[in-house]
Write a structure and sequence with these properties.
By secondary structure, this protein is α/β, with parallel strands linked by helices. The chain has 10 helices and 14 strands. One of its GO terms (biological process) is lipopolysaccharide core region biosynthetic process.
């Protein structure tokens, strides 16, 4: 469940404005930091880098977009690799190249999901430049996607993609801690592409591309049964450890699921057998997000399923993105 402050950023509450003086201090420090790093410490990688990020805290749909980019750019012939923070993981060393047997508690849930869904090489580490260096030395890649990292300014980038939650938008529009923003809304005018996850593309959304998240039928976590229509699962207990759990709950309800229980959890929340039993309760099934599923193991006492999600974006976005990548390729060849 959202704590009082993040909830107030989006529900029209006035009291967060009491924190505006601290937001002003945050703004000053972050601007100075960006200026210094971009001027003196930024390093440009050897291959084009696409950064997928946001200017607000919380989930906006970056991971489904990264998966979509990996799949479609690979189809276009690019040799794609991914770098990610690996939040929630504890790898043996950093940077760390994901292996076939990597676990979420080692590398984080989002990088593991990306690797399993796409098959592209993924390296995690807080130092994105070190992660890129390891990726270039350990895999044959000619294009790198950074999962998050819009504010990681030491990492030079060639294309920036900002993702916005179409339902929550930018909340109250204030900087941390009075609002959810890491940078002011003016930052959106500097990025190359703005992707809006769901919602309506109104007049204020001019120039944005809409991303829709399309669900597939529920899938058993243990893989021992086939996908089935959601209405065949019976009564559902829902649990979501993502940035915006309500989006998942609303989607399942719209799909016709017989929801009897909803449990929002902290983003990147871990799972254990006792917690899974508690979450299912008296429901026939426990249904979680695909991101949560990579952290779950069914022990036979929980009827555990997840809902696969795939992003859908307009064709003209992909063609324009490829044009930009090709432009950067030509520039890089000239520099070399």
């Amino acid at each position: 469940m959202l704590s009082p402050l993040p909830k107030a950023w989006y529900d029209g509450s006035l009291w967060p404005k009491l924190l505006v003086p601290f937001s002003a201090l945050f703004h000053m420090i972050s601007r100075l930091r960006r200026w210094y790093i971009c001027r003196y410490r930024q390093v440009e990688p050897q291959v084009p880098v696409i950064v997928v990020g946001n200017i607000s805290v919380g989930g906006t749909g970056k991971t489904p977009l990264v998966i979509w980019l990996c799949e479609h750019l690979t189809e276009k012939g690019y040799r794609v690799g991914v770098v990610s923070r690996g939040y929630g993981g504890n790898a043996p060393t950093y940077p760390y190249h994901l292996q076939a047997d990597s676990r979420a508690e080692q590398v984080g849930d989002e990088p593991l999901l990306i690797a399993r869904r796409t098959g592209v090489p993924v390296v995690v580490g807080a130092d994105r430049l070190a992660a890129i260096e390891l990726l270039l030395h350990s895999a044959d890649v000619d294009l790198i996607i950074s999962d998050d990292g819009l504010q990681h300014y030491r990492m030079g980038r060639h294309i920036e993609i900002a993702v916005i939650d179409g339902d929550r938008q930018l909340g109250n529009g204030l900087l941390l801690p009075a609002g959810p923003l890491r940078e002011t809304s003016r930052r959106l005018s500097e990025v190359d592409f703005i992707i809006q996850n769901g919602g309506e593309l109104g007049t204020e959304a001019k120039g944005r591309y809409q991303m829709l998240l399309e669900p597939d039928p529920p899938t058993p976590v243990d893989g021992e049964a086939e996908q089935v229509p959601i209405e065949q699962l019976g009564s559902l207990a829902l649990a979501a450890g993502i940035g915006n759990p309500q989006r998942f709950f609303s989607l399942v309800t719209q799909l016709g699921g017989n929801v009897v229980k909803e449990t929002p959890l902290a983003d990147h929340c871990g799972f254990n057998p006792q917690l899974l039993l508690q979450l299912q309760g008296e429901a026939a099934c426990l249904l979680v997000t695909e991101k949560d599923a990579v952290k779950c193991q069914s022990n036979g006492h929980v009827n555990l399923w997840y809902l696969p999600i795939s992003a859908q974006l307009p064709d003209h976005f992909l063609s324009q993105l490829c044009d930009r990548i090709n432009q950067e390729d030509r520039v890089n060849h000239v520099k070399r």
